[in-house]
Design a protein that fits this description.
Blueprint (H helix, E strand, L loop, with lengths): L1 H15 L4 E18 L2 H13 E2 L1 E13 L4 E23 L8 E28 L3 E24 L6 E7 L6 E16 L2 E11 L10 E17 L1
Antiparallel strand pairs: 1-3, 1-10, 2-4, 3-4, 4-5, 5-6, 6-7, 6-8, 8-9, 9-10
Length: 235
């Protein structure tokens, strides 16, 4: 017991004096969706319809992260990331008659729509140490992301039997909020693979404070939940 307490005290003292720098690649597979807000009564019916048709979509966040150890209590992280957020939808499509497209109906089909919001992210995050084990630290993470919209891409896949599937793609940035702020909250582990090589894994929640649509009766805010992994190399 005495030797264990002595080794723990020595290790804690060494960790408290650690002010090292780390750098490494980061990748997070994300579940993405949105939260709608409608104040006007007429907009609430539109919101209810969208909530029925719109669903989660798979996205990702990747890039380079830098970490500065601040001693026993915490560490600070920043970096440069690229993320694909958004949501998906499934909706019916009505085709007009080729002879009289204004009045006749030739048939209905189903369309799968993917809304991709692509950002360059500038994160600042603090990791607070909770539990220190022999080869692993457990921490609580909180911070903020500055999101810069690079591209908004909408991809529609139309399934029309017996016609072959059709795909329509459109790009737009003018009608969307170009800058956003996303608070982050998570909890993770820092695994010491070697003295100069650590693997950091953390479930991380990000939520956009500003609505992505600048005008309109319904405000759309994006959120993501992912498992963020960073392979850190000591500088």
């Amino acid at each position: 017991i005495y030797m264990y307490c002595l080794s723990l005290a020595v290790g804690t003292t060494a960790f408290a004096q650690d002010k090292s720098w780390w750098i490494g690649p980061a990748f997070s597979p994300d579940m993405c969706s949105r939260i709608l807000q409608a104040d006007a009564e007429v907009a609430k019916n539109i919101k209810a319809s969208r909530d029925q048709n719109e669903h989660l979509k798979l996205g990702y966040t990747t890039g380079i992260m830098v970490r500065k150890n601040l001693g026993y209590i915490s560490s600070m992280e920043t970096g440069l990331l690229y993320s694909n957020k958004g949501f998906s939808a499934v909706m019916p499509v009505i085709f007009g008659d080729q002879i009289d497209p204004m009045n006749g109906i030739n048939g209905t089909s189903t369309a799968s729509v993917q809304y991709h919001f692509k950002y360059v992210d500038l994160p600042v995050k603090i990791n607070y140490l909770m539990v220190r084990l022999q080869r692993m630290d457990m921490f609580m993470a909180t911070g903020v992301n500055v999101n810069c919209l690079v591209e908004q891409k909408t991809v529609m896949h139309v399934f029309r039997d017996p016609q072959p599937d059709e795909t329509y793609t459109s790009y737009s940035t003018e009608s969307w909020q170009r800058l956003n702020i996303s608070p982050m909250l998570g909890m993770g582990v820092d695994i010491r693979l070697r003295e100069s090589l650590h693997l950091q894994i953390e479930p991380l929640m990000r939520y956009g404070v500003l609505p992505v649509d600048e005008n309109g009766l319904i405000r759309t805010r994006l959120w993501t939940f992912g498992i963020n992994s960073i392979l850190y190399f000591k500088l």
